[in-house]
Amino acid sequence: MRRRDDAPVSLYAVADAPFLLLSIRGEDEAADDEYRAMKRFAGVDERGMHRIRLTHRPLGEVDLSRWSGIILGGGPFNVSDEPGAKSPTQKRVEAELAELLTALIDRDFPFLGCCYGVGTVGTAIGAVVDRSHSEPVGPVTVEITAEGRDDPLFAGLPDVFDAFGGHKEAASSLPAHAARLATSAACPVQAFRVGRNVYATQFHPELDVDGICTRIDVYKNHGYFAPETADSLKDAARQRVVEHPMAILRGFAQRYTRSG
After folding, report:
1. Tens of pLDDT along 54-111?
2. Which of 35, 47, 63, 258 holds its CA 20 to 30 A away from the CA of 141?
3. How many whole angstroms separate alpha carbon 137 and alpha carbon 216?
4. Phi/psi of residue 213, each to 5°?
5. What span, in angstroms and rounded, lies between the C-alpha atoms of 139 and 159?
6. CB 22, CB 54: distance < 8 Å
7. pLDDT of residue 8
8. pLDDT, position 260
9. Rounded to whole angstroms, how far apart are CA atoms 105 and 111?
10. SS3 sequence, the chain?
11. In terms of pTM, does the model score above 0.90?
């Protein structure tokens, strides 16, 4: 297996219109690993993907003309968390993302939300987001829907493939104007699209086996699983071949890259 740091980089995004990654991970190890994985699987470097860590600074004004597209990573925030349990940082981030997503959806601007994207985009469009369809940390078998087979980013994927995930909340149902692109046995909405260019996935398209093992180590005390099961979860992850979800990131970069 090729080491992750040795993976070739093919630059699609140009420096004057890079992609913007919004991170909600406060932990440096997880946040930096996420950024490396997003760049690697999208086929860009630091010139092609900039990062804002929303746990470390406010979002500020986003000039969409500067960016080819925006990607939102996952993390420990859930829109369905009890309001009293949300930290001031989480409340700020949710408010900033809600305002940004309103503009993105209105303009149909290229966006890919990974895991947390289902909660944030789902809330913005009136989906039912709750804790009825949580999934444990580890591999999940994803099935492409009929609408997914007609979608530019999902059409090239196998009808059934393995991915890595783990989430407390999910979309139980979508409004009629959203296209459900993928599903799984335990979670009815694994991916959806709004308009032509706004996407959200419940699974993590940036995660390979090394990445999921890093997440397990970092988040073993965040309530996703019993901490003493961390090693068995990593062993289970190593038994599955996860190689197809990353094509979504590469396809997103190839489809939306533009000069500024």
Report:
1. 999 999 999 999 999 999 999 999 999 999 999 999 999 999 999 999 999 999 999 9
2. 35
3. 8
4. -65, -35
5. 16
6. yes
7. 39
8. 57
9. 9
10. CCCHHHCCCCCCCCCCCCEEEEECCCCHHHHHHHHHHHHHHHCCCCCCEEEEECCCCCCCCCCHHHCCEEEECCCCCCCCCCHHHCCHHHHHHHHHHHHHHHHHHHHCCCEEEECHHHHHHHHHHCCEEECCCCEEEEEEEEEECHHHHCCCCCCCCCCEEEEEEEECCEEEECCCCEEEEEECCCCCCCEEEECCCEEEECCECCCCHHHHHHHHHHCCCCCCCCHHHHHHHHHHHHCCCCCCCHHHHHHHHHHHCCCC
11. yes
Residue carrying structure tokens 């992850």: 237
C-alpha closest to that of 140 among 206, 74, 203: 203
Domains located in the chain, CATH noted: 4-256 (3.40.50.880)
- The pLDDT of residue 258 is 85
Read off the tokens for 222: 């965040």
Q: In which residue are the tokens 């309103």 written?
A: 102
> In this structure, are residues 210 and 218 in contact, taking their beta carbons and an 8 Å threshold?
no
Residues comprising the chain, all counted: 260
Segments of the chain with pLDDT less than 70: 1-15, 259-260
Is the CB of residue 198 less than 8 Å from the CB of residue 111?
A: yes
